[in-house]
Amino acid sequence: MESLFYLASVIALAATVLALSRANATHALIYLIVSLLAVAVIFFLLGAPFAAALEVLVYAGAIMVLFIFVIMMLNLGASGVANERQWLQPRHWIVPGILAALLFGEMLVALQHHSAALSGTMVSPKAVALKLFGPYVLAVEIASMLLLAGLVGAYHLGRRFLARTEIEEELQEREAQP
Q1: How many CB atoms are closer than 10 A to CB 79?
Q2: 3-state secondary structure of 137
Q3: Are 44 and 21 in contact (CB under 8 A)?
Q4: How far apart are CA 34 and CA 97, in angstroms?
Q5: CA neighbor of 41 nearest in space, from 109, 129, 138, 115
Q6: Which residues of 111-148 are buried (b: 16+ CB within 10 A; e: fewer)?
Q7: Contact criterion met (CB below 8 Å) for 49 and 38
Q8: What is the pLDDT of residues 38-84, one digit of tens each?
Q9: Residue 48 class from Cβ within 10 Å (0-12 exposed, 13-18 middle, 19+ buried)?
């Protein structure tokens, strides 16, 4: 089981580095999702299956969907459509697909040796909820406000960029007309 932990750790680190090094936001999100799935496997291997499930549902699921909506709101017009078609080519999915397949295989092995994978004490969902909405309720609310502020900020920055691009295109069209 120790080798599974190290494999998930290497995948998490590699996917995180790839997410940080991508110039394309969509590619970065794909690698970030793989990284979050690897962290979920690590949580499971450390004996926290509930934390692993939350990692997949909340971070890899809900928050990544939010990020994708922000990217969609920053639609850059006709050039954006052409870029999206290029991004959806299968060759861009090879590395994330390989990393996700390794994680899936690792999770299958971990589930077969379920008792060996759990080394700590189990924490119930009720205990997590009591902590999150008890002494840590302020931190949970601050995190939600931070995410909302990031969404609003990204929208306004993208809207300003899109307006500037449209003005530049209009000026170029006027200059091209005789």
Answers
A1: 10
A2: helix
A3: no
A4: 9
A5: 109
A6: eeeeeebbeeeeeeeeeeeeeeeeeeeeeeeeeeeeee
A7: no
A8: 998 888 888 778 788 888 888 877 777 777 777 766 665 566 666 66
A9: buried
